Amino acid sequence: MLPGAGPDDPTVTAMRARELGRKSVVVGDRVGLVGDTSGSSGALARIVRIEPRRSVLRRTAEDDASTAEGRLERVVVANADQLVIVSALADPPPRTGFIDRCLVAAYDADIEPLLCLTKADLAGPEAVLDYYTELELPYLLLRPDSPLDPLRSLLAGRVSVLVGHSGVGKSTLVNRLVPEAERAVGTVSAIGRGRHTSTSAVALRLPASPDAEQDPGWIVDTPGVRSFGLAHVSAESLLHGFPDLVEATADCPANCPHTADEADCALDGWVAAGRADPRRLASYRRLLASRAGETDTRTEPDPRGRPE
Ligand SMILES: Nc1nc2c(ncn2[C@@H]2O[C@H](COP(=O)(O)OP(=O)(O)OP(=O)(O)O)[C@@H](O)[C@H]2O)c(=O)[nH]1
Ligand SMILES: [Mg+2]
After folding, report:
1. How far apart are CA 249 and CA 258, in angstroms?
2. Whose Cα sits closest to atom 16 in ligand 1?
3. Which of 49, 241, 279, 283 is 20 to 30 A (C-alpha) from 306?
4. CA 137, 227, 117 angle in degrees (round to 5)?
5. What is the Å distance from ligand 1's center to 263 Cα?
6. CA–CA distance from 279 to each of 241, 243, 289 (Å)?
């Protein structure tokens, strides 16, 4: 969409120009165009420049930077202001380990998180919300008939990217917000996994509401992911995803690795004194261990103790 273009203006089709070299264009990029930008049928413009990115949301296939998969870094989206972490309350069940990873990625990329708990018609949010009580994490509960105004006002004026496991209802939500989007919606199999219905990320302009003057914003639907690898985030930055634990580390010895085998790590005393939830510390340490290649990142416990 061209700068200043309204929702009814034609979409311009453009291809990468040779000047770009090996730089890849990702969803959310602002680009410089030359050529036919009329948007008329058959018109083709060329992308000659990528503007500096305000934010870059990345993930790796795995956590361990010493493996090929861990080094394979993907830019999920550029220039996002808000990371909407979509988690179903059932079918598939919520995984706080996954949400924690998304929070780390959001803080690392300087993108504000918003937790959207979908399928509230199937299960209650208590277990998930209890786990996050010490964080000032904004959240919304959604069921198929929920009014969307609260969500729309949180999306207004910003670029928001939806992330979550397959089958949690990202595309369902996008279709409710942008009916013309007609994003394909899949079913969830008997074992509670989605079928990876969406296969590429797509940015959509949200429709303007008649009574609001504000820019309604943009939403990016992404394909479901199994995990959110964090090999690109330093051990120190991992802690930013755990604001409820950060304060305790002021009392740690210099260069404390914060691992369970570090006898002087102040995090144990902090949790023992009831100042943070022990499950949060366990989750942080699982991430630390997983970055060091010690554990399988795919076995995160369910907050309700249900095995995967
Ligand atoms: N009961 C219930 N079902 C829902 C809700 N939201 C979505 N679903 C169903 O969940 C299934 C998966 O929805 P999708 O929107 O395709 O999920 P997705 O997150 O886009 O999945 P991928 O594209 O595979 O990543 C569909 O059968 C939806 O109808 C909800 O609030 N309640
Ligand atoms: Mg989808």
Report:
1. 8
2. 185
3. 241
4. 35
5. 45
6. 14, 14, 15
Q: Which atom of ligand 1 is nearest to the CA of 146?
A: 31
Using DSSP's 3-state secondary structure scheme, residue 11 falls into coil
CA 182, chain centre distance (Å): 22
The number of beta carbons lying within 10 Å of the beta carbon of residue 42 is: 7
What is the 261 CA–ligand 2 centroid distance (Å)?
41
Joined together, the tokens standing for residue 60 give 């790796």
Question: Which ligand 1 atom lies nearest to the CA of residue 91?
Answer: 10
Place of tokens 């008329």: 40
pLDDT digits (tens, 9 = 90+) for 222-237: 988 888 889 889 888 9
* In contact, 107 and 100? CB cutoff 8 Å: no
CA 286 to chain CA centroid, Å, is 19
Q: What is the pLDDT of residues 242-299, one digit of tens each?
A: 999 999 999 999 999 999 999 999 999 999 999 999 999 999 999 999 887 765 444 4
Ligand nearest to the CA of 118: 1
Please compute, for residue 2, the number of CA atoms within 13 A of its CA located in the half-sphere on the CB side. 16
| Secondary structure (H, E, C), 13-41 | CEEECHHHCCCCCCCCCCEEEEECCCCCC
Q: What is the pTM of this model?
A: 0.89
Distance 171 CA to ligand 1 centre (A): 7
Q: Which of 76, 86, 172 to mutate to test the pocket of ligand 1 (most atoms within 8 A of CB)?
A: 172
E strands present in the chain: 14-16, 31-35, 45-50, 56-60, 73-78, 82-88, 112-118, 139-141, 159-163, 202-205, 218-221
